[in-house]
Amino acid sequence: MTAPPPESVFQARGLTKTYRMGEVTVHALRGVDLDLFAGEFVVLLGPSGSGKSTLLNILGGLDTPSEGTVRYRDHDLTNGDDGRLTRYRREHVGFVFQFYNLIPSLTARENVALVTEIARDPMTPEEAIKLVGLADRMDHFPSQLSGGEQQRVAIARAVAKRPEVLLCDEPTGALDVNTGVLVLEAIEKVNRDLGTTTAVITHNAVIADMADRVISLRDGRIAGVRTNATKVPAKELKW
Amino acid sequence: MVIVSALNRKLLRDLRGQWGQAAAITLVLACGVAAFVMAVNTLGSLRRTQQGYYDRYRFAHVFAHLKRAPDSLAGRVADIPGVAQVQTRIVMPATLDVPGMVEPASARLISIPDRPAPMLNGLFLRKGRYIEAGNRGEVLISEGFAQAHHLEPGDTVFAILNSRKQTLRVVGVALSPEYVYQLGPGQILPDDRRFGVFWMGHTDLAGVFDMKGAFNDLTLTLTPEASEPEVIRRLDALTERYGGLGAYGRADQQSHEFLDNELKELRGMALVVPSIFLGVAAFLLNVVISRTVGTQREQIAALKAFGYTRWEVTLHYLKFVAAIVLAGVAVGVVTGSWLGRGMTEMYSAFFRFPEFDFQLDPQVVALAAGISVGAGVLGTFAAVRRAAALPPAEAMKPEPPATYSRTLVERLGLHRVLSPAMRMMVRHIERQKLKTALTTIGIALAVAVVILGSFGKDAIDHVMVAQFSVAQRQDVTVGFVEPTSRAALYELEHLPGVVRVEPMRAVAVRLRSTHRSRRVGLIGVRADASLVRVMDIHTNPVPVPPDGLVLSKKLAELLEVRPGDSLEVEVMEEDRPVRSAVVAGLVDDFAGTTAFMDLAAVNRLMREGDVVTGAHLLADPARRTELYTAVKNTPRVSGVIIKRDVVDSYQKTIGENILKMRLFNVIFAGVIAFGVVYNSARIALAERRRELATLRVLGFTRGEIAQILLGELALLTLTAIPLGLLCGYGLAFALIKAVYDTELFRLPLVVSDWTFGFAASITLVAGVVSGLVVGRRLGELDMVAALKSRE
Questions:
Q1: Where does residue B380 rank: exposed (0-12), middle (13-18), buried (19+ CB within 10 A)?
Q2: Mean pLDDT (whole number) for B661-666
Q3: Which ipTM value was assigned to this complex?
Q4: Nearest residue on chain A to B430, judged by CA atoms?
Q5: What is the pLDDT of residue B791?
Q6: Which of B404, B424, B694 sits opposite A143 (nearest CB)?
Q7: How far, in Å, CA of B267 to CA of B249, rounded?
Q8: Where does a domain end: B203, B228, B257?
Q9: Any domain includes A74
Q10: A42-69 pLDDT, tens per residue?
Q11: CB contact under 8 A, A143 and B428
Q12: Domain containing residue B752
């Protein structure tokens, strides 16, 4: 590798997150140090309860750590108030969720427009939908789309504002293999063509093969980091 | 039965979880129950009290006034088949000079047996004693008058009786079933300060008025099988030659008529207002239960999988409804009793009974509970059934995703101007057409309730201005003891401070068209009159032609005549000529049934000279006191109406009560508006929690999602307001037609801009408050949790 030293986008140090579930205190993260670099494709791998979603939520500005610090470039996400975190999400982050979270009363195009209308330098909704290969489903409502199609609309919605970071929480969790692969291809394409720093949470080890780096979590701690020498294209994945 | 109690525990926790919504519905229901309990119980109390009073004190069935008849006529009246008891008496008007009161008051003097004896329209003696035979000038006075003047047994009052000033000694304070509602001549509301009923010994009164061995008024009771019209017909035939003015039954007896009218009004209130509230409550319960059942599908599936029957599941949700409904009934019954007590107290000032208490009838409470439970079950049964009928396997699955389509707005091509947020709003509204419509109607009803509760004042204010500022410009109206030559007017012109005098001729007549007839006052007016003009309800002057009659529109309706038709006019005075006259026009006036005619035409009809029976006076304000004193001492004058007094008494009595009623209506309307908007907002928040959380994640601010959530309700509220204004206007119209369009009085449909504005503001404020309450909850929206969950 002769590339220049990679630019660190996220810096997390000593991240701890505890919250109370009724009478019980849950330690979701127990001191995580982590850097994510510009343009890289990272898979966060771990069983349920390992803390990967909590970590992603903190990186995405949906939650704040109990202890430790987390920075996104020059933004301090550690103690962000609601307004600052909202602006951060609005300007820099694209989210994809396991259950798509499309607005049922808006068409595919309009779901994307929802984001492009509040973004600073977005692509058009049409461009974004073409990017995920759904040009012919543009004016369909979510209830008229299959699960895989809905998830691709969600990806289009996430990337339409040209975010610097794309965070995906179990994007294929509710899909079968074939549709799942289509969705992963869309994410792969965004990462490759737009250079968006991408983090994907999964408990499916197969998906890890398409990443630049794989970070494994267990019990709220980083259990291991591995770098893939060669990335397997999404369409060759099977599970 | 451990499992059942677990289910009941779930019930309690569900209630606690939705306490805000449950409380809002409870309040709406409570308003309906309160209005029902108040109206029905007051109605019942009033009716029972009336009935008991009438029976115990032998309120007469038929009344007749005549000029003068020998006592022997009584025996012939008693012989009419169907007559049970007859009571003859002397009834005379008098002008009073009460210590401490500048202007004159009027009294009606009624003779009573010299010694206590059973009589029709018996007296209830509140204070003092009965008159003593042989003691001249002793009177019993009506309670209202006594209270207004702080008169006690032993006090004295001066009166002009048969043109002579006399001293009357009060020996007791009494009540009569004939004067439960006591109106003096020219009064539109009871004014106890200016009018009283005085009962005086028969011999004494007969002496004063030279009526020994004679009477001029009689009342009678009927046997159960008697035909009232037949008795009246025969009675009229007997009294005709003694100047009979035509007998009438209870239905036309003033006090009874007003009381009956009030009962009718209460019945209307008992029906309309609770229906609105119960309807809204049923709708709200439907919305909340549908939503609860929707979110608890999986729980229902689990319960059924464990082996709970469909009926047990249904019962579980019905218990939820019952808890809310019964809480509403409890609050409503307590509030309703309290309001009923207040209402009864208010009535006590208008209606004089020996005893009048509010009684809470357990049957009414049971009925209110029954109706409420019925409304609750009706509102929720479908939703509960749907849940219980689902096979467990299907119920385990989440509800299918909502299906949306392009809205009408977009098909019309307007979508280009709509932002995605606006489209979400429009499509959501269009998708839930029924719920949207019902929500809008609910809010609109809140607006309508305010109008319904407030327009009465507008209408009465309008009448007051129309009648007492525009149509009537006199200060004082005087009536003469008997028809007099016009020369009497000169006497009036010379009273201190009198600026202008206009003559008036009133004749008691019976108008007849085919088999329909009506006893009315025929009023002769001068075409050039400027003090008192004939005007309709909208203050348009109605010309009185040189010939022919101008009738109250209501009178024409009752007689079924139209302009151009001919009427038989039977004069009930002197030698009772029967003539005919043509209906020349109608006047849409606000009270009573009157026939107007040109003064000269009346004189021609009566074949008399320039005869008058009274006059309207315009006076110099600075010399009013002098004028009043002079009028009090003018023997020829039998009655005085001071216009300002009429207006003042209105302001004092009605004004206050209307303000109280308005306050309750505002509270009621606020409860409806808050209940509907708050519940809609809470449901919207619950249904769209995930959607709103997603938007927050995508970078929408709290304010932006609040706009999406509350914008929809704002839109509905803004749509509902004009609808409610219209609806309120319509209900006001219906109420006027149902209750305020009687022979006694008619209210015009007048709703002021202020009332419209007020109704809209109340609803808007209630909407904004509920919006703020729900808006605060948006801050607690848990983005992460909402994203993790399936719909």
A1: buried
A2: 79
A3: 0.80
A4: A105
A5: 47
A6: B404
A7: 23
A8: B257
A9: no
A10: 999 999 889 998 999 999 988 889 999 9
A11: no
A12: 422-467+653-791
